[in-house]
Structures are given as C-alpha cells and as structure tokens.
C-alpha cells in the first residue's frame, strides 16, 4: 500500500501547503503479506417504501474491490494521527479470501451493515487491480467462487450458513448445522455474504458451475 499523512481539514491553505512538505506527509510505499482481503461496505442508509417496508441497499462487488485499484484513497484515523492509504495487489495467489466488513464495534454495541453485495460466482477477473509491470507476470487472473459464508440476523443473535461448491459435479450446496440442501447458484448472490473463498482458474480448467 501507499501511505501518507493527512493534515487537519480545518487548517488554512497556506499552513496546509507547508505541512505537506514535511516527510510525514509524503507518500511511503509499504509492502505486506495478507491472509485475506477486507472489503469495506459503504454506509447503508435504510430507505422505506410506500408500505413502510425497509429497502436494503445493494452494491456491486467490483465497487468495493476498487479499494485495491491503486488510486482509491481511504482515510484512517487513530488517537494520534490521520493518514490516507492506497492499496494495490502485487501478487494473485491460487486462492483468495474476501472478508466483507459487515460489523463495526464501538464502546457500547456492535452494528451490522445489511448491504447486499452483487457478485458473479464465476469469471471474476482481477487483472485491473495489478500494476502494469506485475500483470506481465500473471498469466491467470480470473477467479471462481467455491465457498460463501453468510451471516443472517442481528449481530449478537444471528446465525451462519455456508454455500459450498461440489467440484466433482459442479453443484452448490447449503450447509447449516447438520442440514445439507442443494441450492441454485443465482440464490447465493441474494444472501448477506460475509466471507468468500475464490479459486484461481487455470488455463486448462473448464467451467463446471453452470452459471
């Protein structure tokens, strides 16, 4: 990622320009390994329709993946400082784990963002999230979903389900406790996905998922 300090927003323009010359406000490149990629959901305003029923917002997967395009800046705050970060992928492993950040904690309670993420379950190409020089080293950049963990209900009282692809048959199954049922691929995308596992597609693989 690329990190740089963020001067106070209420700082006069001249003072802000001087601060930006200091080393703490210059961009620094930091390379780090990861176990999973955290995808941030936009703030979820809940609208009500004419029948006073809540309308849950939706967001495309590629919108929240934009965090890793190398140009989108995200602000982070600590007790001591504010800083901006830009992220870009430098390597694509055989398997990727996405953690969709649904839960936020404060001193009093945990909140859950119910936004639905719209995603295809096959052919997700991540090439654009690599720099041009890194792209040349990656012949395969397309991923297929193989597992999808869902959280239902309130943060403290909810339950979990998991959707798993059976590689031999290309069929999807839903697991909850001891219950196992088959599920249509298009139903998976309607759930409140929380953690996803994606498998990189190699050149000799064929699409067996029926989507």
UniProtKB/TrEMBL annotation:
- Please provide the record's keywords in A-Z order: Hydrolase
The answer on whether this UniProt entry bears the keyword Hydrolase reads yes
Annotated ranges, domain USP: 1-201
Which EC class does it fall in? hydrolase
According to UniProt, the reaction catalysed is: Thiol-dependent hydrolysis of ester, thioester, amide, peptide and isopeptide bonds formed by the C-terminal Gly of ubiquitin (a 76-residue protein attached to proteins as an intracellular targeting signal)
Q: Which domain of life is it from?
A: Eukaryota
Q: Which InterPro entries match?
A: Papain-like_cys_pep_sf (IPR038765), Peptidase_C19_UCH (IPR001394), Ub_carboxyl-term_hydrolase (IPR050185), USP (IPR028889)
GO MF entries: cysteine-type deubiquitinase activity
Stored Pfam families: UCH
- GO terms under biological process: protein deubiquitination
Entry's Gene3D superfamilies? Cysteine proteinases (3.90.70.10)
Q: What is its EC number?
A: 3.4.19.12
Entry protein name: ubiquitinyl hydrolase 1
Name its species. Origma solitaria
